[in-house]
Each structure stands twice: as structure tokens, then as C-alpha cells.
Amino acid sequence: QVQLVESGGGSVQAGGSLRLSCAASGRTLSNYAMGWFRQAPGKEREFVAAHGFSGPNIYYGDSVKGRFTFSRDNAKNIAYLQMNSLTPEDTAIYYCYVDAKWGQGTQVTVSL
Q: Tens digit of pLDDT per residue, the chain (112 long)?
């Protein structure tokens, strides 16, 4: 059974950057499509980014295009979400999703 652990969240000022990590055990990430989602207080979970198990295509939500970058390190079985030019609207709990499983999430807080 896959287990996912997100890390890298924290508090940052607007305009700053964070890099989130999603470490997987029980599955080889390179064999699976995966995604990043986020959920802000009082809002529904929102799609952030996704990548198929093969091929170069990465998909981003409209609100993060041009600012966030998805990547994988297959040797370490870790996926990353590089987040730049953060705004308070990016404040949320961020989750990774693989093989119908969710991680526990990591909190990102962006202040003015």
C-alpha cells in the first residue's frame, strides 16, 4: 500500500518561494500518474498540478501557471512542487495524490 508524506510547507511572505516534497513508499512513483492539490479554509480541494506516469506533459491549474513547477526525482522516489511568486491566495494545505491515495498534507501560509 502506498504511503505519501508531504513536507516543505511553512510561512512565507508574499513574493517568496517554497519547495514542497512528496515522498512515497510502497510504490515506485515513476510508474504512476500523480498530482498536487490544495485546500484553503472554507473552500473545496483545488487542482494544482499533475503529471502522467510517462511523457513530458505536466498540467497546471490556471491559478498557478507560470509560478509553480512540478518535478520528480525517480531515484529518490520523491516528487516536488516548486512554488514561486507566492501570494496570500496560495495559502492552503497542499496534498499529493498517487494511486488513489492522499498524503496527510503540508500547510503553506503566505502573508503580506
A: 889 999 999 999 999 999 999 999 988 888 889 999 999 999 999 999 999 877 788 999 999 999 999 999 988 999 999 999 999 999 999 999 998 999 999 999 999 9
User: And the C-alpha cell for 56?
Assistant: 513530458
Which of these, 23, 2, 19, lies nearest to 79 by C-alpha position? Answer: 23
Using DSSP bridges, classify how beta strands 68-73 and 78-83 pair: parallel, antiparallel or unpaired. antiparallel
Q: Round to the nearest angstrom and report the end-to-end CA distance of the chain.
A: 40
CA 44 – CA 42 distance, rounded (Å): 7
Q: How is residue 15 annotated by DSSP?
A: T
What is residue 29's three-state secondary structure?
helix
Q: Of the candidates 42, 97, 89, which has an alpha carbon nearest to the alpha carbon of residue 68?
A: 89
